[in-house]
Every structure is written in C-alpha cells, then in structure tokens.
Amino acid sequence: MDAQVIVTKDVDYMNDSVYDNGKDLLDIYMPQGKKNVPVIVYFHGGALLMGDKSWGEDIGNKIAESGIGLVSVNYRLSPEFQHPTHVNDAAAATAWVIKNIDGYGGNPQKVYVGGHSAGAYLAALLAIDSALLQIHEIEDSKLAGAVLISPFLYVEETAKDRIEKDSIYQTIWGNDPQSWIQASVKPHILPNRDNILLIYADGDDAWRKEQNERFATAMTDVGNVHVFTKEVPNRTHATLLTAILDNDDMIVKLLSDFVMKE
C-alpha cells in the first residue's frame, strides 16, 4: 500500500434535516496527500434492517491505502422506514459527495457508487435510475460507474421469498407485488447505464449468483458493453467483507483495478 489514510467522521449530508441515530451522517476515507482521486460512495449491508457506516471501516481504510477514496454512508432503515426512503437517503448522500468531495481531495468526475448486499442493491438503483439523482440536480452522467458486492436485485422475487420467512420484511417494500417491481432493477434495465462491476462469492446462495448474472446479461443485451461479473473463491456472503483485511482478499484489488482502469 502506498498511502496513509485521512479519516473524517460524522459529516452531515442532510444539512436541512436531523435524523435519529446519526442516519444522516457519513465517514470519509481519503489517501493522505493526494488530490483528484476517484471515490466510491459505499452503502453498508444489513437487509435494509440493520447496520451503519462503521461497517465500511475496514474496506474504507484498505481502499484509501490503495489510493482511492471511500465514503461510508448511514441511511434510514426499516422497520421504521419503508422504500424508497433508503434509496432516497443514498441519493442525497451521493449528491453531497459529488458536490463536495473535491474539498477532501476527491475527483467529482470520478464518483462511483457501491456497497455490499442491501447496500449494493441501493447502489445499483442509483446507477440505473437517473431520476434518483436528478432530484438533487445531479445528472446521471455524473456517476462514473458502480461496484456492487453481492447485491440482491430483483425485489419482486427477493421480497416474496423473505416475507414468506419473516413478516418484518413487509416493512421494507410492503405487500403489493406491483410495488416490489417498482423497487426492483427490472424497470430500469436501459441503455446508457454502463460501467458496472458485480462481485459475488463462490459461497453465495445460488439465487443471488443467478440474479447477478441475469442482471449483467440483461444490461449488456440492451447495449451496455461494460457490465461485468466476478466470482470470488473461498468466500461466503458475509466473509466477502469480514475477511477484507485477510492476505487473500480479492475485493480491494478488484475494486481498485476497475476504478483505476481509465
């Protein structure tokens, strides 16, 4: 690794609001002494029911050591809040980063969205639904791409399965199958939504792997030629992140190679 890390914690990305439990705050991990670096806006996992920005600490430090910035974001969670609150918060945080990250050494023209699991689902929506950022006067062309670690993507399937197992998932997307489709990536598989990397573990559930591959195929079928998948060996859904500091970690190299390829 070639850089020390500067960490700025608890930055408010919603200046006109105060969320309980600091859900309107983010942490910034930047390589010390560098300017104009690419930045990943990172959303933690936790099924949209749990978690916080501290879950991005290890990946934030390791990514910043490689010369790339990472911003780990809090967002409001279910059961108290329902879709689209989670993704609206993610959009507000991303807009804040694009408008402000140059003051921390980041390049606003090289902002990627990313995350793990549920957080990667939020990042996927931001990458392909241009209306989410346009609300904040950010054109979708301002995003450089997306790096998605083991997301679920097709909510019309995921919500149905999860609600059958635990009624708490009703608080995320509701009970209406039509609302599940609206919360899915499916309506937004369109051209000009390019430069997406999807990563999943060899130990991920078969249904999750299939959703990732299906999404990549569907995106390339409509003309997005830079949508890629990568399976990481010797990992599970959880250890993709919990083993980020291990010597055999592949995640940081995959992300840094993808972000720095241009």
Question: What's this, in brief?
Answer:
The chain has 262 residues and is of the alpha/beta class. 34% of the residues lie in helices and 22% in strands.
Model description:
It is a single chain. The protein has an 8-stranded mixed beta sheet with strand order 1-2-4-3-5-6-7-8, with helices on both faces. The chain is globular and about 50 Å long. It contains 10 helices and 8 strands. The protein has one domain: 3-Layer(aba) Sandwich (Rossmann fold), CATH 3.40.50.1820. Helix 8 links the parallel strand 7 and strand 8. The mean pLDDT is 96. With 262 residues, the chain is of the alpha/beta class. The longest helix has 16 residues.
Biggest sheet strand line-up: 1-2-4-3-5-6-7-8
Total helical elements: 10
What is the domain total for the residues?
1
Low-confidence stretches: none
Rg, rounded, reads: 17 Å
| Name given to the CATH homologous superfamily | Alpha/Beta hydrolase fold, catalytic domain
Structural class: alpha/beta
Number of strands: 8
Q: What fraction strand? A: 15-25%
Tell me the series of helices and strands, N- to C-terminal.
Answer: EEEHEHEHHEHHHEHEHH
